[in-house]
Design a protein that fits this description.
Structural class: mainly alpha
Radius of gyration: 28 Å
Order of helices and strands: HEEHHHEHHHEHHHEHHHEEHHEEHHHHHH
Number of strands: 9
Helix content: 40-55%
Largest sheet: 3 strands, antiparallel
Mean pLDDT: 91
């Protein structure tokens, strides 16, 4: 991997503090202004790497790395950095809490009017959005974890009081966000003969089978999912139609906001009144993916080890977990339906049941497909390799790994991006949501698939794709000025596509950081794929080295103090080589080869000594 995640993150941190610190104060807002989502993304640019990559931790002054201190030097030294972050985090939670003390989740300036429609009212901009629920889950978990680790390192009463207050606000917002996700889940049921059913069947029918046969096969594969949907009884997403009818199909996932008519969720925490929803009862692929990713954070090892969820949040998570599992299972089934000539996800672009189609939706569907394959145990090198081939093709179609012509339609996915229409309960468009994260999502997916592949060569090919996408993103950094080194200047990769921006996009910058964190975790946590032939070769070398060593021990070769030291060194190296056979067979083979040469020199020396040479 040519991309160096740690160094790149440090460079982004330098750029972030240069961009955000003005006269010692934190400057909120970016290209799209200030809102609950953008400001959380701005904070996560710092907090996400600090809480997910141990060598970049900021929550223990005694363990902060010197390079980290240098990168964040504008904030202060090792003692001041976590204190300053506490104040900035506290400021965020205060900004997005109303006068009654309840958290707010409005989309704000990220929401835009429909083309030719009137400007949005303040009431519309304050509508709860799933993106705000999801990013709040990630931010609050990072905050609570930061506080739990940082608290033991300080004895100051005033600072401990600040930490207690920060944890309380973060925990309350976390609960409110989880309730919001429960009230935004959607199950849309429709007949196989109506327009939604026809589009779904056309999408999955890659083998050109009769429609009735496709419907029967799809329902058979989704039988367990349909049965489990009856257990969705809290919040939104309940199935009221007759799914037992052989002509009925469905979709499940998350709508763009709280679903109209969603029931309130009972909770023991004082999260304030649960606002009436406005979103249509239909899943949106974009919001489904970010909701599933947020629930992944709730289920992460770090969340469990640090005990970041209180008792009430654990109860809410168990309810969310059912929706999480059903969604992954549904989309993996649909995306890989048939498994003969071609999967639906390989038939680019992905077509949604409302008639929309775009390469971006194919990219989003790969995320749910991979998660579903992993969860069901169906994923192997063949399956993940097919997903990897889709990513390669998407990179070409998006002109990331192919030369682009001026004014090419494929470039719209980068700038201005995909406009997602947000509908009300009557399916009437009321506003839009702009998505231009194609390149960053592609980078994340490539590193994720690379980490799942067991074939070393195929993994290397995926990492090569990741490097090419990263080189594309490097050309899109803001090249000069106060915001230099942040994103996004699409014109840097596609001249004349977009002018040089006056402010950074925290939406894009946070996703770049998320992709780098994903790459760092791949290198830090996941072992290199085992090459069976190489592992066998390494084990044969170790066995021979052990045999030669044992024979020399019997012959008394290691007499004398110097030879005893050599014996202990050889024995330790043998143990080290044996421990590396599974994870690093090449290294194990190299160690064993070195030992064989060393033992040969010792044997030859003994023979020459005995012969008087």
């Amino acid at each position: 991997m040519r991309m160096q995640p740690r160094q790149e993150i440090l460079d982004i941190w330098r750029a972030t503090v240069r961009s955000c610190l003005r006269n010692g104060d934190w400057d909120w807002g970016g290209r799209s202004g200030s809102n609950s989502i953008s400001d959380a993304e701005q904070l996560l640019t710092l907090l996400m790497p600090a809480t997910k990559i141990p060598v970049l931790a900021l929550d223990d002054p005694d363990r902060i790395d010197e390079e980290v201190i240098e990168a964040l030097g504008a904030i202060g030294g090792a003692i001041e950095i976590p204190r300053r972050l506490v104040r900035i985090m506290t400021e965020y939670f205060v900004r997005y809490t109303d006068d009654s003390g309840a958290p707010t989740f409005g989309g704000g300036t990220y929401l835009t009017p429909v083309e030719g429609g009137p400007d949005l009212t303040e009431e519309q901009r304050s509508m709860d959005v799933v993106d705000s629920f999801a990013v709040s889950v990630t931010l609050t978990l990072a905050t609570i974890g930061f506080v739990k680790v940082y608290r033991p390192s300080t004895q100051r009463a005033d600072l401990r009081a600040q930490l207690d207050k920060l944890e309380e606000m973060a925990s309350l917002r976390l609960t409110a966000a989880m309730v919001g996700l429960l009230r935004s889940f959607s199950t849309s049921v429709f007949a196989a003969t109506d327009e939604f059913g026809i589009r779904l069947c056309d999408m999955v029918n890659q083998d050109e089978l009769p429609r009735r046969e496709v419907v029967a096969a799809l329902r058979a594969q989704l039988r367990d999912t349909m049965a489990s949907l009856r257990n969705v009884v809290v919040g939104s997403g309940q199935v009221t139609e007759d799914l037992d009818n052989s002509e009925m199909l469905f979709e499940c996932g998350w709508s763009w906001g709280t679903v109209a008519g969603a029931e309130e969720v009972e909770t023991t925490e004082a999260i304030g009144p649960q606002r009436e929803g406005s979103a249509e009862n239909a899943p949106y692929l974009y919001f489904t993916v970010i909701a599933v990713d947020a629930i992944d954070d709730l289920n992460s090892e770090r969340t469990r080890l640090l005990g970041l969820l209180n008792e009430e949040q654990q109860r809410l998570f168990r309810i969310l977990q059912l929706r999480w599992e059903l969604t992954r299972r549904y989309w993996a089934t649909v995306a890989t339906f048939g498994n003969r000539r071609r999967w639906p996800i390989e038939d680019i672009p992905w077509r949604t049941t409302d008639g929309d189609r775009t390469d971006y939706y194919t990219l989003q569907a790969t995320s749910l497909a991979v998660k579903g394959l992993v969860a069901s145990g169906r994923g192997g090198d063949e399956e993940f390799g097919r997903i990897g081939n889709v990513l390669v093709e998407l990179a070409q179609r998006g002109r990331i790994t192919r030369r682009a012509s001026p004014d090419e339609p494929a470039l719209v996915v980068h700038a201005p991006g995909k406009q997602v229409t947000l509908n009300d309960a009557t399916s009437k468009p009321i506003m839009t949501w702009n998505v231009n994260e194609f390149s960053t999502v592609l980078l994340q997916r490539a590193t994720t698939v690379a980490g799942l592949l067991n074939n070393a060569r195929h993994r290397s090919e995926m990492l090569e794709l990741a490097d090419e996408v990263w080189e594309h993103l490097l050309r899109r950094r803001i090249p000069e000025g106060r915001h230099q080194g942040l994103w996004d200047h699409a014109g840097g990769a596609f001249p004349a596509l977009a002018p040089l921006p006056e402010a950074p996009s925290w939406y894009l910058t946070e996703r770049v950081v998320q992709a780098l964190v994903n790459a760092a975790q791949l290198l830090w946590e996941r072992p290199f794929p085992r090459a069976l032939n190489l592992a066998t070769f390494a084990q044969d070398l170790i066995d021979e080295a052990e045999y030669v060593f044992d024979r020399e021990l019997i012959s008394g070769t290691f007499a004398g103090e110097a030879m005893q030291r050599s014996m202990r060194s050889i024995r330790a190296t043998l143990r080290r080589a044996q421990s590396l056979v599974d994870g690093q067979p090449g290294t194990a083979a190299a160690l064993a080869s070195t030992l064989l040469l060393q033992l040969n020199d010792i044997t030859t020396g003994q023979q020459k000594a005995s012969e008087g040479i």
